[in-house]
Specification:
The chain is of the alpha+beta class. 25% of the residues lie in helices and 17% in strands. It is built from 12 helices and 14 strands. Helix 5 crosses helix 6. It is globular, with a radius of gyration of 23 Å. The N terminus and C terminus are likely disordered.
Length: 410
């Protein structure tokens, strides 16, 4: 019997341009896997990455959880969902589905409208009146601008010293120059520029060029709702501590989040493996909240030689990192998973007073977003993930030398 016509048509022609292009892509995505297999195997899109070894607590909870012993249940929060610790990384605590759908939408609106104000307001306007929004001019195109920034060019890797009270003055003395404006970027509309936004500071201003905080700018505002949510998470995270230091026993008195970063990911973005060394408080909780499309999170040990644990983070999951082994562990995000946005981001939230200052506590009702006003956020989140991570830079009550209190700054 001769082969079917359908089968013959489905076989790619090795001499075709499409086949050759696919082959080149395959070679590019596989040639370095032996050198950095733990990262590249999740970044690869051709062939699709094997995610069978990824710890997915939400999927496994119905089967008793634990992810083949890589995570252990150490308690539960208000609605009965489990709190997990990861024995391979002392100080790492996971709260699957901790943030409710309503609160997730509230945090998304806060991140896109209230926190990163200027450009997002322009973006929201451009969705409704695209012809009426002027182009945004680049800094390099401005007439009479004198450059005072760091030299423009390829991004350089920075090895920053761990922060401490003993070297705080020397770290403050390091110049914190603004980046040089790009001369190759063209003027563009807000709708084109908005997807390029990647981060926004919370509290103390972080300087990416030196990987240190720029205390000369003073301490920015920490939203009270976000602070309350982080404090609630830190109390639950204390259940999983066993790294040999007792300071976690007084977190309810000493933990005060004073800095953080909102990371804005598009689905093709990644975050390279790195270590957080900029906080004086090197053991207090770092609370990380996932919103939007799911992501693969890798966390290893104090050196790159430690095999990382791959964890699937879904929208509403919270990661708590504390203690010397966890806070100084290498971690990164090699992959955002496309088309994993939860259904509740497409649903119309309950109508509510948009100006209400509701708490995002799990025990209180959150600010809901009226359906028409939610549409721009829904559109953006289709191909995005937002990560809000908050940490404590200084011990509670610590006075930063030479830093003017926010209430006295103009």
């Amino acid at each position: 019997m001769s082969p079917s016509t359908d089968f013959l048509v489905s076989v790619p022609d090795p001499s075709s341009s499409a086949f050759k292009k696919a082959k080149r892509q395959y070679i590019r995505t596989t040639k370095n896997r032996n050198q950095d297999a733990d990262v590249h195997k999740f970044k690869a899109r051709f062939p699709p990455a094997d995610l069978s070894d990824v710890l997915d607590l939400a999927a496994e909870e119905g089967d008793g959880g634990g992810g083949r012993g890589r995570a252990i249940s150490i308690g539960s929060f208000s609605d009965g969902k489990s709190i997990y610790a990861v024995p391979a990384v002392p100080g790492l605590v996971l709260l699957p589905s901790f943030v409710s759908p309503d609160v997730q939408r509230t945090l998304v609106q806060w991140a896109l409208r209230d926190h990163a104000q200027g450009i997002w307001n322009a973006h929201l306007t451009s969705l409704s009146h695209p012809k009426d929004v002027p182009l945004i001019k680049t800094k390099a195109s401005a007439v009479g601008v004198v450059s005072q920034g760091a030299p423009y060019g390829p991004r350089q890797l920075v090895s920053n010293d761990p922060a401490g009270t003993d070297n705080l003055y020397s770290l403050q003395a390091i110049p914190k120059l603004p980046p040089e404006p790009s001369t190759t970027v063209s003027d563009c509309s807000p709708s084109e520029l908005v997807p390029k936004l990647r981060w926004a500071n919370i509290g103390w201003s972080y300087h990416w060029g030196t990987k240190q905080y720029d205390f000369s700018k003073g301490k920015g505002h920490i939203d009270s709702r976000l602070r309350e949510l982080c404090q609630e998470c830190s109390e639950l995270g204390a259940l999983g501590q066993g790294w040999g230091d007792d300071d976690w026993k007084t977190w309810n008195e000493t933990y005060e989040p004073d800095a953080g970063i909102v990371n804005f990911y598009q689905t093709k973005d990644t975050l390279m493996a790195h270590v957080d060394r900029s906080e004086v408080c090197a053991t207090s909780p770092l609370v990380s909240i996932s919103l939007g499309n799911a992501a693969i999170f890798l966390i290893g040990g104090l050196t790159r030689d430690v095999e990382p644990v791959p964890i699937l983070l879904r929208s509403g999951d919270v990661v708590i990192m504390s203690g010397p082994s966890c806070r100084r562990a290498y971690h990164g995000v090699p992959r955002i998973l496309e088309s994993t946005l939860p259904e509740h981001f497409g649903q119309s939230p309950q109508a509510a007073d948009d100006e209400a200052d509701a708490s995002v506590s799990q025990t209180e009702s959150a600010t809901a977003v009226a359906a028409p006003a939610w549409e721009p956020y829904k559109t953006y989140m289709q191909n995005a993930r937002i990560n809000i991570n908050v940490r404590q830079v200084f011990p509670k009550g610590f006075v930063v030398p030479g830093c003017q209190p926010q209430s006295l700054r103009q």
